[in-house]
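User: Fold this; tokens only.

Assistant: Input:
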Amino acid sequence: MAAEKYYFMYVLIIVVLTFIISWLSLRTKPGIRVNIILVNNFLMLLFFLLSSLMGVSLIFGYKIQSFDFKFWHVITGQFLVYSILFHIILHWAVWKSYLRKIF
């Protein structure tokens, strides 16, 4: 059985470049923060829905001709994880205040 190629490095490079551009935008234009947060929240929802729907279709064995559900499930899952990490970074001050209250 041949190993499948999922292009992890390509996805990571695309996401890191996007995050760097967003982060630099936050530093140069303070008013853009709300827009970046809204876009990030929308992307998290989109990637969650796509990944979960493809995961359910994999469980039930649903097939659409040549569409590779497993490949796209992995790719959208990667984007979901990266957008969640960026979300945590965007709200790091809030997370620090929560952790101070706990500890």
